[in-house]
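The passage that follows is intended for readers who have already worked through the single-chain material. We present the inputs for a multi-component assembly, then the predicted structure in tokenized form, and finally a short commentary. You are encouraged to pause after the input and sketch how you expect the pieces to fit together before reading on.
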Amino acid sequence: MADIEPYESALDAIPGAHPYPRTSRYHDAEIGVHRRPDGTEVRYTKRRLLPPLDDAGHQEAQPHVVGAGERPDLLAQRYFGDPGQWWQIADANPVLDPRELTDEAGRIIGIPTAGGFPQGDRRV
Amino acid sequence: MFDLPVGQGPVHITLLMGPKLARPVPAEVTEALLSAQITATAGERSGFQLAFDLTKNGIISRRLLPEGFFDPKTRLIVTVSVRGTAAVLFDGLVVRQEVGASNRPGHSTLTVTGEDLTLLMDLEERTARYPNLPPSERALAILRRYSDYGIRPDVYTEKVAQPPHQDLRVHYQTGTDLQYVTELARANGYTFYLEPGPNPGQSSARWGPEVRLGIRQHALNVNMDAQSTVDQLTFAYDGTAREEPQARWQDPGTRQSTLLPQPPISPLRPPLGRRPTPALKRKTLSGTAKQQREQAEAELLARAAVSADVVSGSGSLDVNRHGYILQPRQLVGVRGAGRAYDGDYYVKSVTHNLRPGSYQQNFTLSREGLEARSDYVRP
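Having made your guess, compare it with the prediction:
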């Protein structure tokens, strides 16, 4: 249950103060603090975990037949209007290298529905 | 190859409705949506108005409307995704519906109006006593009652600590929960509002200072040819808006009354402009002599801080051109308005106007002085 936070943290924990913008796939990633032997603190982004695959059924995906000469960023521009959002397609079709998505013409990949929310419990 | 022009990404709107637990609406309802208007303001209640096409034999007029799908107190959540990034715009309850039946085919409409979830806190009046609780704990105790609608309290301790004395005074609540929480926030220079999100069905109830620090949103460009994102932007500078409140406090032991010193308002409102406006008016607060000293100091600070915003701006924005949703209750930079009015502003309110093919936002901005403090804004 939430508790009362001190006044000072009201101006620290600012929405939007996360180093990654809302459009980034690292927006959900947790920020860790590493303490060096001499006491200085280094902030780093913790490993980003992919959304669980067996749970992927809750978000219906739209099938897309890969054509020749397509790239993940072109697909993202076409379906989302932003080429930087290719990672959403890569997340929905588990591939190790995003180029695998469109290597093979004729392959059917799933495009996540625009308007869906990412799995992570991100704060605004 | 592409059926969409570059840079005009699709905007997707999703509606969720239901009693307490909202679920995605049937596809026919989404298709019948004609327009949506959503208003979100800092410190006031947010509202929405949705207009649906009411065809004679459609599913809305045949089944959903008689079955109570749009009845009052139905929960409604609106989410919008721009360029693949989703955001919850609104989480509220239906209050009122209007049906306009027309002789001309295709002109019958159903208009649904509603308010955000603070309506729940405004339904029933309550008298309660809060012995030995400071204002923030009183606010938290009230907000905890509403967790079943996914409301998470986001409460901060007050700036001027007010240790309670049960033997001197016991605080009483009369009126609704919302009135009491808002009154407590106002007495401390804080705001109270519900911020929907981050996921549908959740919202956080912020009882604390306005967010006037941190990373700015993407800047609003005006008068910059092809780079402009804002259609128009008007600024007003009201010199009499700022007042200097004065409070006297009487020591109950010695019966001496003293004028409280003017507190610095920058802890509550970090300055955004370089040239703060001097206060032209002086106003004496009434009733502060009888209060506890900390309470009088808090009220003095609150009144000084709230009246400090003298520069206000308003304008409208095309989200397709801007590329991002302008969120209310956060900071944003303005450029292209000239040396006096450029710089960072607090976004006071935003009205979203959605209809098929267009997404416009009307916004109001505010800050306390002219000229930017920094040489650049976040692009």
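Commentary: Strands of chain A lie at 31-35, 41-45, 61-65, 108-112. Chain A has a mean pLDDT of 77. How closely did your sketch match?
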